[in-house]
Amino acid sequence: MKDMMNKFTMLNFKQYWQSMLEQRWMPYYQSLAEREQRILLFASVILPFVLFVFMVVLPLNDAQNSKETSLQLLQKEVHDAELLAVRLQAQGGVQARKGSVMSVVDQVARTTQVRKFITRLRPQIGGHAGQRLLIQMRDAPYDKTVAFFETLSKKGLGLIQVKFQQAERQGFINVQAVVE
User: Fold this and answer.
1) Tens of pLDDT along 135-173?
2) Percent of the chain as helix, strand, coil, to the nearest 5
3) Which pTM value belongs to this model?
4) Residue 123: CB atoms within 10 Å
5) Which of the listed residues 5, 67, 81, 83 has the most CB atoms within 10 Å of its CB?
6) Residue 22 belongs to a domain
7) What letter would DSSP give residue 130?
């Protein structure tokens, strides 16, 4: 039943366009001068190609270029994060520092301008003299976060655990880290 309806509909569609071509477009085309007929034929051949290029090929090319750029940026960020992790782990033991872990982290966060991105600072059990601190950051700029952790390492704090996640905006990350 559906096949018959489909054939009937296709038959009607074909007949409609065939009658339109024979009754309207062919008389109009034949009434044109020979030069105008050639121009119309040329345009009818070129127009679908031009539309295909501008509506399909170029948008796909632009999307591919933006994805490649985004991928290169993310690969650079991953490489920088890996280098930072290696540097911080290679530092080894904790140097002598002034004040508690909480005060050092707060001071460094203010100087590196990431304090406003820190959503949680919570003391953790364990570590050297019981001074471990959980730091959670949300939508923090990647470069400022890297500078923050480098400054922490220079101040004698070591990273025990760190987890980076990409934020919704490009160039921003969410971080969860334990320092001591």
Assistant:
1) 999 999 988 998 999 888 888 888 888 898 888 888 899
2) 65, 20, 15
3) 0.51
4) 13
5) 81
6) no
7) G
Residue 18 lies in a domain: no
CA proximity to 132, closest of 144, 121, 147, 143: 121
Which residue range forms the structural domain that includes residue 135?
A: 97-179
Assigned token pair, 78 = 């991953």
Phi, psi of 124 (to 5 degrees): -120, 155
**pLDDT at residue 60 greater than cutoff 90:** yes
13 confidence band (pLDDT: 50, 70, 90):
confident
Q: Report yes or no on 120 lying in a domain.
A: yes
Q: How many CB atoms lie within 10 A of CB 132?
A: 18
CATH number of the domain that residue 105 is part of: 3.30.70.60
Do residues 163 and 176 make contact, with C-beta atoms less than 8 angstroms apart? yes
Q: How far apart are CA 165 and CA 176, in angstroms?
A: 9
Q: Is residue 155 part of a domain?
A: yes
